[in-house]
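Checklist before submission:
- one chain only
- standard amino acids only
- sequence pasted in full

Submission:
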Amino acid sequence: MGGHRAADERHWLRGAIDRPALLAIRDVFDTDEPLATAELDDYLDPRTLEVTFDEGLNGATTARIDVQWTTRNDYKFHYTDSRGVDLRWGNHPHNDEYVNVRGLAHYHPPPNASSDPGEVEDSCITHSRETLVARAVLKLWRVAYHADSLSPLNAGSNPP
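Returned file contents:
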């Protein structure tokens, strides 16, 4: 996944991958975003939903969001693009390592989806249902796309 480094994987998702949740998220992207195509990496035993975009943020010619969702409602939405920009929205334990994060929901900011404990922020996404989280990510992406800026990506007020 893009510029994602193994050192950033100090924290992991709990539970097995939730295939029905990934299918519901796929349907949100396929229905609501004309620039996106969403496919499971393996239809019967998926690990990741791969959402590819015809265009990315800030002039990127291609982009992708890789989604993981577990049966315990832990998730990662990892954006990466042709310009080398990475960012993530996550909801999973992090051993209270992220000093600016009050709960499980957090945001790894661009340009490199930093896992530096002082750089990870509370996520503006506080929903827990997979379709609402998917719509929130999509809305934040769309606002940033039209603004031609990365700053709106974690600036929503509990979108959608």
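Reviewer check: Residues 1-9 have pLDDT under 50 and may be disordered.
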